[in-house]
């Protein structure tokens, strides 16, 4: 896995699909992420409401330089071509560099759901990580109640590999969590998501 290359390109990372651009998160995106953190419809299955200072600090961290340490999230903003307005994020982090494994996640504003944006953004990110960075395995987690999320993973070709019982406490109850996984040799980029652009071309 070429983490050095990913860290080097991270500040200008830009992946273009047919519907959305996935580009590196910047300080200008902080208000969008803070607004999403305060929207229970989006955060219902991610985390319970948190103090404003904590939300702000997390959002600011997303815009900080990314060095690729294990567990450090690399945040990218999803921008639909139709509006040019940031609609959410896709994120990824190295789980164990020595094993070339990474985890990713995603969330979008509710007013743009079910337009294929989440799927395409994930396709662009997964494809880049597998084909350009050399990741061996990608995983993603969601609470079992989050059907839109696990169905998105199924559509990406991921397999449900584990059900972690009562692994997350959300909205007053313990929730089971699903772990989905995808190997590089299993990855097939759907043709409909358009041509991936070289980061330098943006
Ligand atoms: C999960 C999420 C990112 C999906 O984004 P989206 O842009 O609406 O998804 P897409 O339109 O690209 O749909 C892709 C696939 O996801 C699944 N899906 C998405 N929304 C769904 C829903 N409400 N019910 C069932 N399946 C759904 C479907 O399989 C869909 O494929 P299809 O359209 O061919 O049926 C979005 O629902 C979201 O932001 N949710 C809130 C935040 C969140 O929970 N993030 C995940 C944390 S683990």
Polypeptide structure, described:
With 202 residues, this protein is an alpha+beta fold. The protein has a domain at 3-140: 3-Layer(aba) Sandwich (Aminopeptidase), CATH 3.40.630. Helix content is 28%, strand content 31%. An eight-stranded mixed beta sheet has the order 1-2-3-4-5-6-8-7, with helices on both faces. β3 (74-80) and β4 form a beta hairpin. α2 (30-37) packs across α4. The protein binds coenzyme A (COA).
Question: Could you say what the CATH topology of one domain is called?
Answer: Aminopeptidase
| Fourth-tier CATH superfamily name of one domain | Gcn5-related N-acetyltransferase (GNAT)
Terminal-residue CA separation: 24 Å
| Hetero groups | coenzyme A
Say what oligomer this is. Answer: single chain
CATH hierarchy: architecture of one domain: 3-Layer(aba) Sandwich
Global geometry: globular
| Low-confidence runs | 195-202
DSSP strand content: 25-35%
- Pattern of helices and strands: HEEHHHEEEHEHEE
Radius of gyration (Å): 16 Å
- The level 1 CATH classification of one domain is Alpha Beta
Helix- and strand-based class?
A: alpha+beta
The biggest sheet, with number of strands, parallel, antiparallel or mixed sense and barrel status, is:
8 strands, mixed
What's the quick description here?
With 202 residues, the protein is α+β, with helices and mostly antiparallel strands.
């Amino acid at each position: 896995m070429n983490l050095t290359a990913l860290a080097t390109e991270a500040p200008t990372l830009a992946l273009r699909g047919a519907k959305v651009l996935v580009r590196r998160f910047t300080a200008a995106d902080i208000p969008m992420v803070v607004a999403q953190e305060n929207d229970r419809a989006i955060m219902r299955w991610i985390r319970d409401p948190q103090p404003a200072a904590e939300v702000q600090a997390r959002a600011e961290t997303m815009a900080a330089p990314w060095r690729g340490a294990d567990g450090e999230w690399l945040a990218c903003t999803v921008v639909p071509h139709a509006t040019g307005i940031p609609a959410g994020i896709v994120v990824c982090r190295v789980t164990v560099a020595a094993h070339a494994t990474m985890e990713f996640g995603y969330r979008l504003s509710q007013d743009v759901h079910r337009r294929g944006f989440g799927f395409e953004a994930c396709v662009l990110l997964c494809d880049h990580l597998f084909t350009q960075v050399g990741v061996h395995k990608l995983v993603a987690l969601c609470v079992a109640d989050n059907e839109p999320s696990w169905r998105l993973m199924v559509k990406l070709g991921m397999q449900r590999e584990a059900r972690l019982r009562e692994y997350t406490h959300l909205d007053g109850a313990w929730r089971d969590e699903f772990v989905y996984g995808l190997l590089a040799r299993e990855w097939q980029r759907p043709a409909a998501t358009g041509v991936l652009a070289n980061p330098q071309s943006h």
